[in-house]
Amino acid sequence: MDQGIEFQLNGERVSYTGSATTRLLDVLRDNFALTGVKCGCKEGECGACSVLLDGKLVNSCMVAMGRVAGASIVTIEGYSKTARFAALNAAYAAVSAVQCGFCTPGMILASEAILAKTPHPTEEEIRAGISGNLCRCTGYNAIVTAIQSAAKEGNGLW
Amino acid sequence: MKKISKSVVKKDHQTKIDGTAWYVGDYPQAGMLHGRIVRSPHPHARIIEIKPYALPEGYFIVDHRDVPGINEVHIVKDDTPVFAVETVEYIGDPVLMVVGPDENTVLRIAGEIEVVYEPLPATLDVRDSITTFFDYNFGKGDPDSAFANADKVYQEEFETGYQEQAYLETQGMIATFADGKLSIHGSMQCPYYVHGAIAKALGLTPDRVRVVQDITGGGFGGKEAYPSILACEVAVAAYHAGGKPVRVIFDRREDMEFTSKRHPSLSTYRVAVKDRRVTAMDIDVIFNAGGYTTLSAVVLQRGLIAAPGVYNVENLRVRGRAMKTNTVPNGAYRGFGGPQTFFAVEMMMNHIARDLGEEPLPFKQRHLVKQGDATSTGGIYHFPVPLPDMIAEVEQMSGYSQKRATYNTAKPERFQRGIGISIWFHGAGFTGSGERDHIKAVTRLHKTTSGYVEILASQSDIGQGIKTTLCKIVANELNLPLERVTYNNPDTDRVPDSGPTVASRSLMTVGELLRRAAIHLRSEWKEGEDQTVEERFVEPDFVIPFDIEKFQGDAYPTYAWAASAVEVEVDTLTGVNKVLGAWASFDVGTPIDYNIVVGQMEGGLMQGLGYASMEQMATDNNGRIRNNSFSDYLIPTSMDVPVLEVKMHVEEYPLGPYGAKGAGELPLVGMPGAYMAAMEQALNRKIQHIPFSAEDALLGATQE
Ligand code: FES
Ligand code: FES
Hints:
heterodimer, A: Ubiquitin-like (UB roll), DNA polymerase, domain 1, 2 domains, 6 helices, B: alpha+beta, Aldehyde Oxidoreductase, domain 3, Aldehyde Oxidoreductase, domain 4, 3 domains, 7-stranded mixed sheet, 6-stranded mixed sheet, binds FE2/S2 (inorganic) cluster
C-alpha cells in the first residue's frame, strides 16, 4: 500500500499515497493543484468536476481513488494543450458560451466526450451528452451551438 | 446592428475555459485556517449558553462577544446580527464560528459544540405573521368609484414559491487581518457593500478595510447582500487569527439552505371591469421576508411598482407588506420582486379575458401602456413602448395565434398541448432615487504612459460580461484596440465606488459614466503622459423625482420590455409536461455585445421557466428548507427546453451608452406567466400558483 495508487494524470505517471476512499476530485484539487476541476456539489449532481477517465466522462467527486489505479485521467489542464481543445475553444469563444465559467471546464470535457464518440452529432445527441453538466448562466443554446460548430470546423480532429 | 453590438471574444474567456482562472475556492490553502459556522437548529429560540469545549491547540471560536465593532451587518436596516446574541430567528441563524488549521477537525468540533437553547414560539407560515417589517400604500385615480360603477368585479389570490439562485459556485470568502487592516477577497457582486459592512462590524475606518472581488461563478442576486453577512463573520474570525488567513467556502447544502432566496409571495387582485375594460385594480401583496429584513424593503418596492403590469390602469390602489417569519431571510434574486407580481397580473388578465369570452392576447393588447401614459406611481413612460411590434414578432416566431386556435378546439386526449403569452417590463436601474441619493457613483479612467487605459470601477463580472462590455465602450470612444483597455476585478484600495452590480444598472449607468469619461480623456489625451479622469453620476433632467414616502414620481428613468410565448405538452395521465418551445422578443436598447446580451436573455429565460415549474423549494413543519441539494432542487438541464429562440428588439434609450438599457434581469421576470398560460390552455383550467408540479396538474384533472 505504500507504493501508493499509480495512475496517468494528463499523460504523466503519478502516484498518490493517501486513502483509497478519498474522492478523485479532492486529490486533483488539493494534491495536484488542478483547480480547473471545479466543485459545485460533491454529490454527483452538477458535472462541474467532470474529468475523463480512460476517455469516459465521469464526475470526479463520485470516483474513489481506489478505482483510479492504472487508469488514465485527463483534466482541463491537460486537455487544454490539445488541438481538439483549440477547436472547441475557438467555437466557444465565437458564440460567447462562457459566462461565469464555473461549469465551463466540465462542459469542455463533456464536449470532448460527445465528439470522441460521435464526430458529427445531432442537436439531440449534443443535448443528451451535456445533460449531466448543469449550467445556470447560459440556457445551454450557446454551448450546443459551440459544439456543433467545433464538430464542423474541427473536421478530422475527432 | 450598430458597430458596438458586434461581438468580440470576451475579456475573461480564456482563463475561464482553460481552467486557470482562480475562483475563491481555488487559492492554495497552505497556512490558512478554516472556519465553519455553527447555526441555530431552532426556528426561534433563546440562547441560554454555549457550553465550554476543550479546543485543541490552534483552534478557536468566535461569537458575538468577539465582534470588535458593532454586531450588525450593514445592509439596509441593520437588524441582521453578525452572530446571534440573545435569540435566534430562523434555522440556520449563525451563532458562532469554529476556526482552525485542519478542515476536518473544524467540522468535527462544529458538530460537537453544544449550544443550549430555550425554544420559543415560531411563526412559520406568512399567513400567521403579525410582525410587519414594511408596509407600503400608494395609488392613483379614484378606485372606489371605479369599483362602485363596475359591471363586474373579479378577485383572485396568487401564490409564488421560493426560488434558489443556484449559481454553480457556492459562496466563499478568505480574510486576513494584518497591520491593523482587514483584507478580504471572495465571491461577490458588490465589493463596496462588503466594505461598508466590515468597517462597521470591525469598527475600522474605511482605509483599514480592503475588499477584492474574486472571479465569481454566478450571482443572480444571491451574491448581492449575502456576501456582506458571510464577510463580516469571516472578518471577525480573521481579526482574532493572529494574521493568518481564514477561509470559509460553503458546501452546496449549506449554501442552498441558509443563503437568501426569492421571496415567496401572496397577492390578492381585485379588478373592476366596465364595458369589457379594466377600470381599476386593488392589489394587496405579501412577501415572506424571513427572519431579518435584509433587502426586503427594496425587493418589495420593485414588486409593487410592477403590480399592474404593462397595462394602463387609471384607478389603482396598491398595498404591500413584507412580513417576518422564522425562516431563512429572503433577498435579491434576478427580477427583484417583479416576477412575483408579474405572474399574478398576467394570470389575472388571462382569467378576466376567459370570463369575458375573449382571447387573452387581444384583451391584453387593448390595455397596453404607451408612451406618455402615467406609470403606477404617477411617473411617465417617457419613451416609446415597443410592445405592439414585439408581440407581433413573438406571434411570428412561435405561430402563437394559429396554435392557440388549434389547441382551443383539441379533442380530449391523453396528451394535451397549450401555448401562452406573457408581456412585461423591467424598470431599468435602481428603484426611485437610489442612484441620486445613495449610490452617487464615481468612476475613473487611468491612462498609463504607454497608452494603456484602465477602467477604475467597482462592477463585478459575475458572468454577465460587464468586463467586456465596459471595455468595449471605452475602447470605442478612445478609438483604441480592445486589448489596450483593461478592467481588473475590483479592489476597493484601487477603485472608486461606482455602486453595486445589481438592478441591471451596471452597463446602463456605469457604462454611460465611463463613456463620458472616455470622451473627456480623449479631449485631454497627451501621448506618453500618465492621466486620470473622473466622472460622477448626475440624474437626467427629464426624470420626475421619486418620493419614496408617497411612492410618487418616476420610479425608473426608462424600461426594458419583453414579450414571450411558451408551448407545452401535458401528459394528462401522469401530469408531466414538457416545454416544446419558448420564443421571446426582448428590448434592452442597443446590445453592447450581441452574443453577450443574447446569452443573458437565454439564461434568464431558462431560469424563469425553472421558477414556474421544476424549481420546487419548501420548508418542513419546523421551518427548515427541505430542498438543499441538486437532487431535491432541480434546475433546467440542456434537455428541458429543446427550442429556445430570442429576438432582440432595439428601442434605444438616449441616455444609456449608445442607446443601451438595463438587461440582466428582464428575461426571467415574465416567463412564468407565459408558461402557466400555456399550461392553463392544455389543462383547460385556471392556475393561481407557481411552482406548478406534475402533481398539481393531476390534482386539477381529477377535480374538474
Ligand atoms: S461536484 Fe461533482 S458532480 Fe458536482
Ligand atoms: S457559465 Fe455559469 S454555470 Fe455555466
